[in-house]
């Protein structure tokens, strides 16, 4: 008789979902929602990082172009004017050391 009661009890648990079963699914739903939000946040973070890296690369290329233009202007000044005074040379030295920091 005890065996039949335990079988009936187990069938009751496996039957229609009870209020307890629905509440037990709520944490799972919360976990799934949180995981989805985390995935979306990670995706957005990757996109922001990609945009930032592209912006850095663009800035680096612009800096290289400016450095080349400055170097050309210096060479033209040396050929046309016969050279630069010591103040300009000191300034150009500090610019070059700063520029190499970016590379």
From TrEMBL:
Biased composition (Basic and acidic residues): 1-10
Domain BZIP: 28-72
Single GO cellular component term: nucleus
UniProtKB keywords: Activator, Coiled coil, DNA-binding, Nucleus, Transcription, Transcription regulation
Gene Ontology molecular function terms on file: DNA-binding transcription factor activity; transcription cis-regulatory region binding
Chain positions covered by the region annotation Disordered: 1-27, 83-103
Annotated signal sequence range: none
Record SMART domains: BRLZ
Pfam families in the cross-refs: bZIP_1
Matching InterPro entries: bZIP (IPR004827), bZIP_sf (IPR046347)
Originating organism: Phaseolus vulgaris
Primary localization: nucleus
Protein name per UniProt: TGA-type basic leucine zipper protein
Claim: Nucleus is one of the keywords in the record: yes
